[in-house]
Specification:
Blueprint (H helix, E strand, L loop, with lengths): L1 E5 L6 H12 L2 E4 L1 H13 L7 H7 L5 E6 L2 E6 L2 E2 L7 H10 L3 H15 L4 E5 L2 H5 L5 E6 L2 H14 L6 H17 L12 E4 L5 H15 L1
Parallel strand pairs: 1-6, 1-7, 2-6, 7-8
Antiparallel strand pairs: 3-4, 4-5
Helix pairs in contact: 1-9, 2-4, 7-8
The structure holds 2'-deoxycytidine-5'-monophosphate.
């Protein structure tokens, strides 16, 4: 069984996906971390994330591995563990730009699908239900008011020591949203058979309980 969870930044996807995976004993696949790993690699090589040709040309020198340990995912780029470096503002901004490049999305497609073959996976991202696992039996699409999402993201950033003005967090999140929703390849849209959950006014546990009920009904 694959459970697909899509939605915009700050909607609570990672938090609920991790909890859901833990409750079900499934693997938690954070596909955003893969785009972040590509971004980390191209920044490391001094490549401009917006330079589509150079980014595409660097892909053959890249190898990404994911290790799953105690419910957490670690990401290795060319054998170096970069997990702790993937959530900086620089990598976040670059990941948003490289994720709109078709060659990057093509390259990451089999990487994600291979993990899906293990079965019992909760996969979280932007195009999981539409493109990566279109036949997943259970799909969720989370939404929330943009201000609520920016506040949540701001709290996370402050907790991680990357806090700045709230207004900047809002602008960054809106810019990323705009790119995710309007890109030509695999834009952020709910799959036709996805269940929509608006998390604006819900507690995390309430979202997880709703999801568990849907999974139970589908099993
Ligand atoms: O979920 P996240 O913030 O870690 O994702 C990082 C970037 O990767 C984000 O800008 C959107 C992009 N992304 C994507 O385009 N498709 C996915 N399946 C996952 C993430």
């Amino acid at each position: 069984m694959i459970i697909a969870i899509d939605g915009p930044a700050g909607v609570g996807k990672s938090t609920v996906a991790k909890l859901l995976a833990a409750r079900l004993g499934y693997l938690y696949l954070d596909t955003g971390a893969l785009y972040r790993a590509v971004a980390w690699h191209i920044l490391r090589h001094g490549i401009d994330p917006a330079d589509r040709e150079q980014v595409a040309a660097s892909l053959p020198t890249l190898s990404i591995q994911m290790l799953f340990q105690n419910g957490a995912m670690r990401v290795l780029v060319n054998d170096a563990d970069v997990t702790g470096e993937l959530r900086t503002p620089e990598v976040t901004a670059a990941a948003s730009v490289v994720s709109a490049i078709p060659a990057v999305r093509e390259w990451l497609l089999p990487v994600q699908q291979q993990i899906g073959q293990r079965g019992s996976v909760v996969a979280e991202g932007r195009d999981i239900g539409t493109r990566i696992f279109p036949s997943a039996p259970v799909k969720f699409f989370l939404e929330a008011d943009a201000t609520v999402r920016a506040e949540r993201r701001h709290r996370e950033l402050v907790a991680a020591g990357h806090g700045g003005p709230m207004e900047k967090t809002y602008q960054d999140l809106s810019g990323r949203d705009e790119r995710d929703r309007n890109r030509v390849v695999a834009p952020l849209v709910p799959a036709a058979d996805a269940r929509l959950i608006d998390t604006s006014l819900l507690q995390i546990d309430e979202v997880v309980e709703q999801m568990l009920a849907v999974v139970a009904a589908a099993s």
